[in-house]
Amino acid sequence: MATAGGDGDVIMAPAAPPTVASHSSMPLMLSEEDEGTRREAESFKEQGNAFYVRKDYNEAYNYYTKAIDACPSNASYYGNRAATLMMLGRFREALGDAQQSVRMDDSFLRGHLREGKCHLSLGNAMAASRCFQRVIELDHENPQAEQELKSAKAVLDYEKIAEVDFEKRDFRKVVFCMDRALEFAPACHRFKILKAECLALLGRYSEAQSVISDILRIDSTNADALYVRGLCLYYEDCIEKAVQFFVQALKMAPDHDKACLACRNAKALKAKKDEGNKAFKEGNYKLAFTLYTEALAIDPNNRKTNAKLYCNRGTVNSKLGKLCEAIGDCTSAIKLDDTYIKAYLRRAQCYMDTEQYEDAVRDYEKVYQTEKTKEHKQLLKNSQVELKKSKRKDYYKILGVDKNASEDEIKKAYRKRALMHHPDRHSGASAEIQKEEEKKFKEVGEAFTILSDPKKKARYDSGQDLEEDGMNMGDFDANNIFKAFFGTPGSFSFEASGPGNFFFQFG
Fold it and tell me: How many helices (H) and strands (E) does the chain have?
């Protein structure tokens, strides 16, 4: 069956399972062999054929082996055992038998076909093509060989495309090409390792590890597989374990450039991060900032570790009072790892500290949706209260005092603001200005009424007034507050002294 390739070419699907020979494909090479031994070998072969037909490939293998042991000069016995090994997925062993069969008989078509199929299954498309070409030379109209030749060409094409795309860092395209190639070369470790490496570089670590684990179960000394296993651990911030795999890969292949670079980066990254953590614990925040920044420059591809480094640097910036920079670092951490709860919490606190309450609520909502703990619920509730508080009148701001202002400071502030905005002071101004100053005068009175009363102030500070639908100021009269604070109306007077200049005199 034909399928469309990535570039529009028609690619033939993998061929059917190999068939076994029912009769010897060539006369016995050793004429001196005992006739009884020859008959015994044929009997073993026939029993092997019977088991093969029943798909009992292990027993078929055993009987073909007995046939070979009895008569090692018969090419068809090796060919049949090669077919059985192919069905068992033991392509390297099958390749050896297929090659032996054509060494014994170069005109053995099935032997050449099986050798080609083994090469193709193992990912050796060039060698496979030569085998299929040889079949066509022996049999000019062999449709199976022609189909297999197209399959080998397709694999070569996918290899070339993948090589180019890897250099372009288009790892998704490489994975696609390797998946297509593996349809024809299911036993090719090289293709599987390249696919796994690209999956790791795409952040799909569990998929990559699944592919690599299968290879390492078969070949625990495969340096490329050890490297990719280490790469997965490295990108998941398991740096110490990753280094162990990189070192093991280098033992198997001392010139493995990728393992060497990854090992060096992993060690440098861990060392620099540890230095930064040490400086932070010692309270040396400027040094910690420098060290975390240097660590971030080591390997931009390590998203998970870099997310932690950004979050750590964000914490340092918050300690240094650089809250905007801290928010930026936490945002960078979240871009690299959008599941990183610590970064959301750190950024939310920075938003709270900079009174960006809507952003804080959004981050705390994300945290609580991910981890529904009592602590996270309380943080969300607190941010929601602060958001509501931020949308009401800020009495501290109206009086021009800090939230920790003392009773005396509040009184002094009221005195100053009340006199500044008193309507009598602006009696000569335009109607618009008089209206605005009257509004401010009333707000100053409201602010003083709340902040000068300990109970009302406590409710205001805690946000209880919001839960109680605000404080009822419907019957509030700013003039009454003013009179009560300053005494009888006759104890002071406002005197105009030219536009914009006013004087007041206490009795």
Answer: 25, 4
Burial classification of residue 181, based on how many CB atoms lie within 10 Å of its CB (0-12 exposed, 13-18 middle, 19 or more buried): buried
Q: Which residues contact 241 (CB under 8 A, 6 or more apart)?
A: 230, 233
Residues in the chain: 507
Q: Residue 489 carries which DSSP code?
A: G
SS3 assignment, position 11: strand
Dihedral through CA 275, CA 276, CA 281, CA 282, nearest 10?
Answer: 70
What domains appear along the chain, each with residue ranges and CATH number?
Answer: 37-158 (1.25.40.10), 176-265 (1.25.40.10), 283-391 (1.25.40.10), 395-465 (1.10.287.110)
Rounded CA gap, 260 and 111, in Å? 42
Q: How far apart are alpha carbons 445 and 458 in whole angstroms?
A: 18
Instruction: Tell which residue, 96, 145, 140, has the closest CA to residue 119.
Output: 96
Query: What mean pLDDT is predicted for residues 464-481?
Result: 59
Start-to-end CA span in the chain (Å): 108
Burial 117-131 (b: 16+ CB within 10 A, else e): bbbbbbbbbebbbeb
The predicted-structure confidence for 136-189, as pLDDT tens digits, reads as follows 999 998 999 999 999 999 999 999 999 999 999 999 999 999 999 999 999 999
Mean pLDDT to the nearest integer, 458-481: 65
Tell which residue, 324, 323, 368, has the closest CA to residue 344.
368
